[in-house]
Specification:
about 325 residues; mainly beta; Immunoglobulin-like; 3 domains; eight-stranded mixed β-sheet; four-stranded mixed β-sheet; 23 strands; flat
Amino acid sequence: MNSRVLLVVCVLLGSAIGSSARADWTQTVFPVKTHDFGTVAVASKTEFRFPVVNTFTSDLHIRSVRESCGCTTAIIETATIAPGQSGSILARFNTPTFRGKKGATLTVVIDKPFYSEIQLRVDGYIRSDMVFHPGAIELGTINQGEPKTGATKLFYAGRSDWQVLDVRSNTPWLVPSFKQTERGAGKANYELSVEVREDAPEGYFQDEVIIQTNDRSMPNVPLRVVGTVESALSIAPQSIAVGTIKQGDSVSQRLAIRGRKPFAIESIDCEGWKVDFSASEDERMIHMVDLTLTADTARGNQRVPMVIRTRGENAVTAKAIVTANIAAEQVAQAQ
């Protein structure tokens, strides 16, 4: 093989390897590159967060994002992402001003740790005969253990026989309902409600319910539901790291337990551990609790919830996490 042929082979091989490497890093840094919003109503709040994971050893910086179509607005939510951390780019479908089948390519420009451009894609269909007002059910802060309901209105203009057949949720603690409020020549109005049940888990949620209609071509339309469930009790520290101890050993800990209203503590339990605690029997907003944890039946590596329950008919519970390593006892061998 002469030197010219060898040079060409090396260039082609290097190009192929370079392309493969680029493909590999974009797949890990941008694990999701496409999203289909499906069929959505006019003015519905329709958004999707593209995750960005920094797998490099230095900061990743997103300089800009440009959209190929005004139907979508891209928002950089985390411009600088530290090594090992995650950020996001929010794609917002502009349903109030666009109609029909729409899509956009989002070109993400990175300038650190090196320059590169990566393309993301969103698509969807904005039907012009349905309008949500407001465009999503935003429930704000929800007290855990207390139900809360939010609602929106659905306005339809088109077929005289069009109707909502059902509203479904894939989340058991989100309970949707609907009722028709008006019907006339070629129009129908509905009120859609979603109740967050008492057993909703703590934390932020972003979900959706599906409105099922008798429209054969596009029967299902999503409605966004968001909120934050806050626990009735807050515990500090939230995690108790015991370390390595032997079975039967004890450790002491002081907890600060805060409630939204005055309460008294009924019990503190932790599976595998004996819990002794002292706390005021009076109802108050904050309890400083001194407790002793004794490794009872716990074995090996432990990561278990410690459940604190308040007293009374409207009792609530909260959890802290206990981590420990219970060392096995050494059994002496008879000589």
